[in-house]
Design goal:
The chain is of the alpha+beta class and about 450 residues long. The chain has 12 helices and 16 strands. The strands form 4 sheets. Strands 3-10-4-7-8-9 form a 6-stranded antiparallel β-sheet. It is globular and about 70 Å long.
Length: about 450
């Protein structure tokens, strides 16, 4: 069953991002990264609940709603000066949230913490007459941005992954980590919206999350859809979670003002500006002694009898050609009939662009796997190269996971159908694929290479 995405995009964590247990937060923040709320219950510091949807208009702004709730609750707990109601519309606009798609939690957390800060609801309100995407997501007045940035001169916000999107944690371990994180700060987490069993919300094995919420207490979330308070299964299998720390800014300088690259660029521009008079002055005036013109070079002749060899351009292998076509499709919708489960259809579409016909199997990874094994133009390989097809077929999981996946190997990442954005995207590194589809979901992984050289 295809489930609606409420505005969540999850991508693999960046290498420089803080992950709980690495010690980076404690090294920088000291006591501000320690236990501050031993009970881990944040309901008391939450403001009034707010909808992310009014009538038929959904903003798909769940990421900003959840993150602003977490920042406000943490600030109120610590007694910091912060508006009672923050503008989710401002956050969505400056962070690039897209109607019908949403945004990425770490990207929003990073942009709020380093570039844009937060502002009060009245500075960019969601007024009653706004009921369309083009009215909600608009350019932001520079004075409002300046107010948000002033907040960053007063306070530091630091995010840390509790559960990074690519992980090997069991559901039990994920819940243990969230429970520990709630004692140190506020937490947002991805969830599947919604499946209920009895009084609690649950999630099938291997399902992908579609929504972001704030964890208000152990096994309890604050949502933007009614009922606003929901209880989750004790071993809920979250795909991702982020912990927030906060403290007064010890320098009074916002992170965007400390950007070293910006400072270096400014210095370079000043140096270039100083050279402008030199290059705009006539050549004779730049020197004390007039410059004599350079003599013309003597002509050089090449005997006409000496042949000049013209090398033939190198011919691409079919594997290399498939890689180039796949790379050129990034950002495009390659699965026209499927969305979340469109990976096999997308691989077939890319192959058809490259060679004029599909491999076979339609939208099924199980049937695509059979087609690859029987196809005379493909051979199975164990050491993948860019342009090889990677596949973990449905029906082969040792843990009963329902859906496999397939894609085309790139130089650093695997390109495949993104089940959240429905676009051809660089979704996993080979290691992340092995960790998620292999170790976590129990799928075997196979590689197939297109034979031959381009004619």
């Amino acid at each position: 069953m295809e489930r609606k995405n409420y505005g969540l995009i999850l991508r693999p964590q960046k290498r420089h991002a803080w992950i709980m247990g690495s010690g980076k937060a404690t090294a920088k923040l000291g006591a501000d990264a320690g236990i501050i709320n031993p009970k881990g219950d944040w309901w008391k510091w939450l403001g009034a609940p707010e909808h992310q949807k009014r009538g038929d208009f959904d903003t798909f702004n769940c990421v900003c709603h959840a993150i602003l709730k977490a920042i406000r609750a943490l600030a109120k707990f610590k007694g910091y000066k912060i508006p009672d109601n923050l503008s989710e519309r401002y956050a969505g606009c400056v962070c690039g949230t897209v109607c019908g798609v949403g945004n990425e939690p770490w990207r929003v957390a990073e942009l709020i913490a380093t570039q844009f800060g937060v502002v009060a609801e009245e500075r960019m309100p969601w007024s009653p007459e706004i009921d369309r995407c083009e009215e909600y997501y608009t350019p932001v007045d520079e004075n409002v941005v300046a107010e948000g940035q002033q907040f960053l001169r007063e306070y530091e916000i630091e995010p840390e992954w509790v559960i990074p999107p690519i992980n090997n944690f069991s559901p039990k371990e994920k819940n243990r980590r969230i429970k520990a994180a709630l004692k140190r700060g506020t937490v947002v987490a991805s969830v599947l919206a919604w499946q209920k069993t009895g009084t609690r919300y649950t999630k099938p094995v291997g399902a992908r999350d579609t929504h972001l919420v704030m964890i208000a207490a152990d096994e309890e979330i604050s949502d933007q859809y009614e009922p606003f308070k929901k209880k989750l299964d004790p071993e809920y299998d979250y795909n991702a979670a982020i912990l927030f720390f906060m403290r007064p800014n010890p320098t009074g300088v916002a992170p965007f003002e400390q950007n070293y690259l910006v400072l270096m660029l400014q210095k370079a521009l000043r140096a270039l500006k100083a050279l402008v008079p030199f290059f705009t002055t006539p050549r004779e005036a730049r020197f004390d002694v007039p410059m004599e013109p350079l003599p013309a070079p003597e002509p050089v002749t090449v005997p006409s009898t000496v042949p000049v060899p013209v090398p033939e351009p190198p011919r691409l292998t079919n594997r290399e050609h498939l890689y180039q076509v796949a790379k050129g499709c990034l950002g495009r919708d390659m699965a026209k009939t499927q969305n979340e489960l469109g990976c096999a259809e997308a691989v077939n579409a890319v192959h058809k662009l490259a060679f004029g016909r599909q491999i076979g199997g339609g939208a099924s990874t199980a049937l695509l796997y059979k087609a690859l094994k029987a196809h005379p133009d493909f051979m199975a390989v164990t050491e993948p190269l860019p342009g090889d097809i990677i596949i973990s077929p449905t029906g082969t999981s040792s843990k009963g996971a329902p859906n496999g996946h397939t894609g085309i190997v790139g130089k650093t990442h695997i390109m495949s159908n993104n089940s959240l954005t429905y676009k051809w995207d660089a979704t996993h590194t080979p290691g992340q694929w092995a960790a998620y589809y292999g170790k976590k979901l129990g799928f075997p992984t196979f590689y197939f290479r297109r034979k031959g050289v381009r004619s």
